[in-house]
Amino acid sequence: MKYIGFLVVLTLTVALALSVSRQFGTIPPLAPLLDPYHGFWQNSISEDELAEDKLELNKLSSEVKVVYDENLIPHIFANTQADLYRAQGYITAKHRLWQMEFQTMAAAGRISEIVGPLALDLDRITRRKGLAYGAEKGVTFIQENDPESFLLLEAYADGVNQYIDQLKDAQLPVEYKILNYRPEHWTAFKSILLLKYMTDMLVGDRDFEYSNLRKILGDVMLDKLYPEYPAGVEPIIEAGHKWNFNPLAVTRPDSINYPDDQLVIDPLPQPEEGTGSNNWAVSGSKTKSGNPILANDPHLSLNLPSLWYSMQLTTPEYSVKGATLPGALGVISGFNENIAWGVTNATRDTRDWYKITFQDESRQAYRYGEKWQQTSFRIEEIKVKGEEAYLDTVVYTHYGPVVYDKTFNSNRQDVNFALKWNVHEGSNEQKTFLMLNAGKSHDDYNAALDNYTAPAQNFVFASKSGDIAMRIQGKFPLKWKGQGKFFMDGADPRMEWQGYIPNEQNASTLNPSRGFVSSANQHPTDSTYPYYVFDNSFEFYRNRRINSRLSEMKDITVEDIQALQFDDYYLHAAEALPIMLELLGSEFENDDQAKKYITLLKEWDFYADPNQKGPSLFYIWWRKTYSQVWKELSDNVAPIVLPSYYQTVLFMKNEPSGPVFDLKNTAETETAAAHVKQGFLEMLTDMKKWELEEGDFSWANYKKTTIKHLVPQFKSFSVENVYTGGGSGIINATSERHGASWRMVVELGADVKAFGIYPGGQSGNPGSKYYSNFIAKWANGEYLDFNLRTADQTEGVLFQTILN
Amino acid sequence: MKFILFTFLTALLVIVFNPFLHYWSVMLLIAIFAALVGNKGAGAFFAGGLGMGIAWLGQSLYISTVSGSNLPQKMGDLMGFGSDIVLLAVTAGLGFFLGAFSALTGSLFRRLLKKKPNNIYKGY
């Protein structure tokens, strides 16, 4: 009897111990998570309370000092570059390990390993695009061409791994505890993969949509609705710039047969709307102090932990500070004692699709000219949590991977398209940042940029010696006019890219006479640039506002530049609203609700400040009107893109009764006024509902800016309803989910003065007081002190650690 | 008295060893401890449970008070409990059951062995 009793209780106890150590569905193992000595409770403790004077870091040539300022920004003082990057890896992992690993898991198409089958499609897309394939090429390229940088990449990886190896359960980031997995070792490959992932985030193409549009509209109407250079464009490189080089010849085939397929295909996810950036530099001639001032604010998806991590990296040769990307070496957007630089996305069509004609079902050969060319197969093994691994076979041609085939996104159409993208060619973007970090002059900046392939960026530059510059850098294919705008026939060798624009012929400018350089994702050049430049997503509003302000500003101070970064002027509204009000006429004069809104709109000063009501009304009215205008186009089953807001406003202004506004399938002949009125009616309905359910429709309350944790389901780790102004197309580009992910202003005087902020905090731990502590300041347009520090500076030190 | 002492010593054992050991090692220690001390069934169950439960509750409370972090609240929301108080209770409850069953197992194990000494000293 005793034995039975004992065995029963023993079994119960073991069963209990086992069941609380197991995952059930989405419920994580409870005991490891709740154990107050190892589980999530331990993640409540902030970094300053865990500060240690000394930490062990092996393989250093001499000790490294890390000083944290009161914002938990680490300042690393090392004697050699290898020590510096080893320490950067260690310190970054200490504060951002989960995020850096999660992002590279996403980039490698390995999310299913963590969350199970629901991420399988996402992983398949990532892998079929060939991101990891591109990163493998990148590793080989760097190993062969730049072994020194490769050693630094390995030093960084070793720093990360030394941190992982000593990591105790208590300090394991809470996301690992909830999702029930553990970090694996970092590698140089992962750092390179991360930079490829950035390319994927920032580069899109609309070949499928334009191919469909061409079929639907014909060439003439396509050019009218989607002109490549609309009237009034202000390019990045000042209009009228003289190109002092002899361009390479590009020959356009005399006859082009575009494949004429029915294209009901789900295109790949594109960079989200709102992804963009501003940067500019003003020369000493325009500033009060006589020193150049540089500003940069990249706009990306607003996430926690933040994409950016601030650091100062110091060796005896240089001291650089700014925003780093956890996982990549050095500072990405920042400054040192001599120069400052910043980046905006240089959106341009560098991704093209070729229709592949396979010889037979086996897909081992495809037509190319008169011959059949061999393919190769890459089997992607996607591990899936709780299930068997998924094997995805991707066929590779000399263009690149066949992303779309019968198994993927083609709605069972018998079509095959290969993706040609410069991300698949070996490149060394990391080198650019390593060189910029140590740069001293405009020449150094140019030499650094020569290594840069993708994602193409507009690199702004300013130096203590007084230079300001802008260069649009990427590896841009040499294209004939119209090449790659539509998908091409891969069997026709004449459709190949004919080489690349040489680096020294990429558009650039140094010390232009207007006294400033700027970029905001608009057209790179005017139409005199001798190469074909095309993209669907050039921006039309921020750049014109920036340029008009910079042109009229004089005696500029750092504070003026900060104010300009936070400028809420809604240029699109300023141009569209008067036209819309005019077209609306007096139709709604007897409707009290309508009258209230019209009065609000008429009194509005076009600033999208958080407390304003005008922007909400305009935003809804515009969107309703816009979708009304292009209703017929968007009703197509095949995916397309709509004409830009800018072009739509131009039509409303210049030809309000023109045929572009007529919906062919209705009896009446519509004009712009009809759409504006319909849009207004729909806005009234929406607003009635909003006022009933939510009440206040001031802008911040309407747009509900949210900074989401990287795992969207972890809602309580996100920060919702941030009270701030701005919006898409506004210099302060803070919309619901996108905005300035980093703001930096640097004045390059005798002592460099620098300011920066980002919407997050230095800690990646949702339990830390440094997790989201910058957000309130960021939302207010305030900045943190980003001046360079010396190793022995004592004021404002939170704590310091010696690595040895 | 023995009950209170046993509870106290179990809590102390958790406080001393849990920082270095996983919960299942601590369970094993509690079982061994219960086998050595020899409380009877229900007494061992509740004393072991209270000991570990109180230790876990105390440590959780201590961390959240000293750190002032809102992580317990966030975790409470995330896990669908809605509040940090519930999460505290769940943590303490889990500690209670782990400690209780471990102690009971230990106590019953001792009862199994009790016979053996009788046999040994029977003498041949």
List unreliable stretches of 5+ residues of chain A. none
What class would the helix/strand composition of chain A place it in? alpha+beta
* Helix proportion range of chain A: 25-40%
Number of domains of chain B: 1
CATH architecture of the domain at 2-200 in chain A: Orthogonal Bundle
Greatest chain-chain contact: A-B, 39 and 38 residues
Specify the number of helices of chain A: 22
Question: How would you describe what is shown here?
Answer:
- The complex is a heterodimer of chains A (804) and B (124).
- Chain A is α+β, with helices and mostly antiparallel strands.
- Among the domains of chain A are: 2-200, Penicillin Amidohydrolase, domain 1 (Orthogonal Bundle), CATH 1.10.439.10; 571-606 and 613-697.
- In chain A, 33% of the residues lie in helices and 18% in strands.
- Chain A has an 11-stranded mixed sheet with strand order 1-29-2-3-7-8-9-10-18-19-21, with helices on one face. In chain A, strands 4, 5, 22, 25, 26, 27 and 28 form a 7-stranded antiparallel sheet that branches. In chain A, strands 16-17-11-20 form a 4-stranded mixed sheet, with no helix packed on it.
- In chain A, helix 3 packs across helix 9 (188-202), helix 11 runs antiparallel to helix 12 (442-449) and helix 17 (614-629) crosses helix 20.
- By secondary structure, chain B is mostly helical.
- Chain B has one domain.
- Helices cover 83% and strands 0% of the residues of chain B.
- Chain B has 5 helices and no strands.
- Chain B has helices spanning 2-17, 23-37, 41-67, 71-78, 84-120.
- In chain B, helix 1 (2-17) crosses helix 3 (41-67), helix 2 crosses helix 5 (84-120) and helix 4 (71-78) crosses helix 5 (84-120).
- Chain B is elongated.
- The relative contact order of chain B is 0.19.
- The model of chain B has no long low-confidence stretch (mean pLDDT 88).
- The chains are: A alpha+beta (804), B mainly alpha (124).
